[in-house]
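Researcher: Go.
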Amino acid sequence: MKSLLLSAWRYRYFILSSIKVDFRRRFVRSRLGGLWMIINPLVQAAMFALILSQVLSGRLPDMSDNKLAYPVYLLSGTLAWNIFTEVINRCLTVFIENSNLLKKLVFPRICLPMIVTGSAMINNLLLLGSILLIIIVLGFTPGYNVIWLPLLMVITLTLSLGIGLILGTLNVFIRDIGQIVPIVLQLGWWFTPIVYPASIVPKAVLPFMRLNPMYWIVQSFQNAILFNTPPTWIALGCITLISLVLLRMSLILFRRASSEMVDVL
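Model: Structure:
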């Protein structure tokens, strides 16, 4: 694993330049360009807020009189989920989509998922800025606990990179994974309290939902932006440990499989 990290460090300028190229490419041949990465989740959140705001806004603790509470709750959860799914979905196909590059150029293959992660980080920082601007314009002022958002984003990126790199490596050899993962993520969206508050979930189901790491991450985003409360550090500490273990496992798997990737591709 150390050799992989050292290789990535030696090629850090290649990674940074590739992130810039990927970001600029989103603006080519499109008037809105990379803004579509921001518009899509915002429109999705707006539709849910329009349909469900009257039904679920009163279910949020201590927020029944605040008309903006549910939209802010929804946007906060959407931000966390968007970081998670973007990295996983892009890592899932990153080696397949860049097969020609892998065959023609000699560079550490670990650079590709790092480029994806860097690009996703920029996209979601822009999304975060857009969400904060929107809710401030609407009249909602976030509290000082928003200072935890960068840390929460790093934890989410680490978790999603660990999962994404494992799935992306396996997808080179077992293409069915590329078909299964989007379905699992869609189910995960509905089994994570993003659209609905956890308070309406039956007590018998709630312990199982809490086994989902994204339950705690999404809740931490919502607490920081809407409720102005700090994250649940014990749960986030466990998730950080799990994320680091997954990342280490993914690097070991990637290192062992990387020599055979080009032949399979």
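Model: Residues 2-264 form one domain.
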